[in-house]
Fold Ribosomal RNA large subunit methyltransferase H.
Amino acid sequence: MQLIIAAVGHRMPAWIESGFAEYAKRMPPDCRILLKEIKPVERSGGRTAESVMAAERGKIEAAIPKGSRIVALDERGRDLTTMQLSQLLGQWRQDGRDVTFLIGGADGLDAGLKASADMLVRVSSLTLPHGMVRVLLAEQLYRAWSITQNHPYHRV
Ligand SMILES: C[S@@+](CC[C@H](N)C(=O)[O-])C[C@H]1O[C@@H](n2cnc3c(N)ncnc32)[C@H](O)[C@@H]1O
């Protein structure tokens, strides 16, 4: 199983890239985190946020592997505890399907894309910058994996 993060945004600041890489490199080969960056659509020429999100939706969908489970990240999504995430990760690893996490750009994710996802999840009730969300998500996936392995990274 692979954990794919399809994230709108590229050319991230070095601290985002190194923060993400720090956690991604800790994952084992059978549960890798793979980042697919999506170039944001420019909001120029009077383009509305809706049309930008719709255009980005097409690019995001093209980055989702066939048959993957889809988890959309949104501040209005469901709260998960780290323990719940680790239980989900354990279930996902049993069926072996890839899981793709979607992170939107400055305007967010297209409403239809969110509605079609298997789950809508938040990492906080605050609105966070998209780069920070990928770092937080990578850390939580590593933490969730470490719990499934009884690894001492997570202390109760
Ligand atoms: C700057 S936010 C977009 C905010 C946008 N105005 C909205 O209403 O969704 C960019 C992306 O980061 C992710 N994001 C931001 N805050 C989040 C949170 N608290 N939980 C989960 N994802 C979040 C979402 O995927 C969002 O589409």
In short: The chain has a mean pLDDT of 96. The chain has one domain: 2-148.
